[in-house]
Design brief:
The structure is a single chain. The protein is mainly alpha-helical. Helices cover 51% and strands 0% of the residues. The chain contains 3 helices and no strands. The chain starts with 7 loop residues before the first helix and ends with a helix.
């Protein structure tokens, strides 16, 4: 759980104002470009998030190529 609170109102407030912990703490082997995409996906500002499923898929494909291409 990235946020902890006494009640639902405090939990909602944490989501609005706090920065989530670094994903590397939970998944140390995750590539940096994947972590950057997750950060974009959960950005507080909706304009920073992928704007469509097609954009998200393109980003995932780019990460796959960058991460697993040999040559």
């Amino acid at each position: 759980r990235p946020f902890r609170a006494e009640d639902m109102a405090d939990l909602a407030a944490e989501h609005l104002r706090s920065v989530p912990p670094d994903l590397k703490e939970f998944v140390p082997h995750l590539p940096g470009n994947a972590i950057q995409l997750v950060r974009r996906m959960i950005a507080k500002d909706p304009s920073r998030r992928p704007q469509s499923p097609a954009e998200l898929i393109a980003e995932l494909m780019r990460i796959e190529i960058e991460t697993f291409s040999f040559g």
